[in-house]
Specification:
This protein is an alpha/beta fold and 251 residues long. The chain is 40% helix and 15% strand. It has 11 helices and 8 strands. The longest helix is centred in the C-terminal third of the chain and has 18 residues. It is globular and about 45 Å long. The structure holds 2-phosphoglycolic acid.
Length: 251
C-alpha cells in the first residue's frame, strides 16, 4: 500500500558537472526500477541540469528548501511555484540543518508546507529529536510538537501528498544510525500521532522515511521494519554506486 521511497539529499555538494554525472549514472542504472520511488534533491543551481538528465528515467526531482510565497520582494528566496517550473515534484521542508542553522520554527515550516501543497508539489517534512532531547526523555514530546505544529491546518486529503522523514539529529552525518528497533519505535509512534491528528486511513497510508547515516550496510535492516517506508539519505546519496544499492535494498 505504501510504495517505498528512497530520496537523496545532496545538500551543499556537487558542481554542475558533478551533478550531471551523478544524475546521468542514476538515470542509466536505475532505469528498470518500478517498485521503489526514487528522488534526488540537488542544490538549486543544479535543478534544471539534473532535470534534463533524469527526464526519461524513473528518478524524480526535489528541492531542498523553499520560501512560502509565490512571488514578490523576497530577495534571495525561491518559491514552490518556481521549483515546480524547474521540474521538481517534491520539496524537502524543515530539515534539521535548517531548523538548527537558520532558526526555522514549526510555524514557518508549516507555512512552507501549505504553499508547497498549494503549488501542487509534495512536501517531505523532516522531524527528529536532538541527542540532548533523547537523553532527557523529551523525544516523544518533541516529535509530537513537530508533527502537530508542522502539519497544522492540513486536511486528510492534503496528507495524500505529504511524506514524513524521521531523522534523529544525532544520527545525521555522524555515522551513528538509529538501531532498527529505535527507528521502528519512533516510526510507529509517529504513525500513532497521525492517527490521532487525522484518521486511521491517513496513518496507514502516509509514508514515513528514516534518515540519519543510512548506508548500503544498514539499509536492508531498516527497510525490513514495518513502519519504515523509505530513506532520506545524505552522505551515501553522493556516490552513484552507494545510492543505487540503497534503491535496490533487499528485504
Ligand atoms: P546523512 O544525512 O545520510 O549524511 O546522515 C541525512 C540527511 O541529512 O537527510
Amino acid at each position: 500500500m505504501r510504495k517505498p521511497l528512497i530520496a537523496g539529499n545532496w545538500k551543499l555538494h556537487k558542481t554542475l558537472n558533478e551533478a550531471r554525472d551523478l544524475a546521468s549514472s542514476l538515470a542509466e542504472n536505475l532505469a528498470d526500477v518500478e517498485a521503489v520511488e526514487i528522488v534526488v534533491a540537488p542544490v538549486f543551481t543544479a535543478l534544471t541540469t539534473v532535470a534534463a538528465e533524469i527526464k526519461s528515467s524513473p528518478v524524480k526531482l526535489a528541492a531542498q528548501n523553499c520560501y512560502p510565497e509565490e512571488t514578490g520582494a523576497f530577495t534571495g528566496e525561491v518559491s514552490p511555484l518556481l521549483l515546480k517550473d524547474a521540474g521538481c515534484e517534491y520539496i524537502i521542508i524543515g530539515h534539521s540543518e535548517r531548523r538548527q542553522l537558520m532558526g526555522e520554527t514549526d510555524h514557518f515550516i508549516n507555512q512552507k508546507l501549505i504553499k508547497v501543497l498549494e503549488a501542487g508539489l509534495k512536501p517531505i517534512l523532516c522531524i527528529g529529536e536532538t541527542l540532548q532531547e533523547r537523553e532527557t526523555d523529551q523525544m516523544l514530546e518533541v516529535l509530537t510538537t513537530q508533527v502537530k505544529d508542522g502539519l497544522a491546518n492540513l486536511s486528510a486529503t492534503h496528507m495524500a501528498n505529504v511524506v514524513i522523514a524521521y531523522e534523529p539529529v544525532w544520527a545525521i552525518g555522524t555515522g551513528k544510525t538509529a538501531s532498527n528497533e529505535q527507528a521502528q519505535e519512533a516510526h510507529s509512534f509517529i504513525r500513532g500521532l497521525l492517527q490521532g491528528v487525522f484518521t486511521p486511513e491517513v496513518a496507514l497510508s502516509t509514508r514515513i522515511l528514516y534518515g540519519g547515516s543510512v548506508k548500503p550496510n544498514n539499509v536492508d535492516g531498516l527497510m525490513a521494519q514495518d513502519d519504515i517506508d523509505g530513506a532520506l539519505v545524505g552522505g551515501a546519496s553522493l556516490k552513484a554506486e552507494d545510492f543505487i544499492r540503497l534503491v535496490r535494498f533487499e528485504k
